[in-house]
UniProtKB/TrEMBL annotation:
Protein name: GrpB family protein
Origin superkingdom: Bacteria
Alphabetized SUPFAM superfamilies for the sequence: Nucleotidyltransferase
Organism: Paenibacillus filicis
PANTHER family assigned to the protein according to its UniProt record, in alphabetical order: GRPB DOMAIN PROTEIN (AFU_ORTHOLOGUE AFUA_1G01530), GRPB FAMILY PROTEIN
UniProt xrefs under InterPro entries: GrpB/CoaE, NT_sf
Amino acid sequence: MSSGVQVVEYDSDWVRLFEQLRDFVHPVLSDIAIKIEHVGSTSVPGLAAKPIVDMDVIVSSQPDVQLAIQRLAELGYVHEGDLGATGREAFMPPLNVPWHHLYVCTVNNAEYKRHILFRDYLRSHAEDAKQYGDLKLELAKRFQNDRKAYTRAKSEFVNEILKRAGWR
């Protein structure tokens, strides 16, 4: 994966890609996954995004997180730890599937709740979603070789949306 920042206009194929990826992991997680959610910008119709699908696999308990780590390894996923988001485990996908971000966490994990709140707010507030997409396109040009600066620059907008959506 390149380290540059690329944001593109919305692509309805992202939904189909999520469904394919969900269907790929579901067989090994079906007895422990409460939900497999499409999150992040690719999950919001009309929103410009980095063309990388984000998925949250939700389980009920920490032992189920450990079980998911083992089972995803059988499919070729590489566990990367929590990458700084406590209680949310990240995975690098197998080489034979399209690049995506996969996370596993429990249903009460704060990062998961934040993902869903943000996604659902933008899905129901098209004007804010458009504003966010425009901001991301502009920031991707300005910070095309600095992913951290790109993320920092959009954080004020993200936090404002979360506040409007009721995040405390």
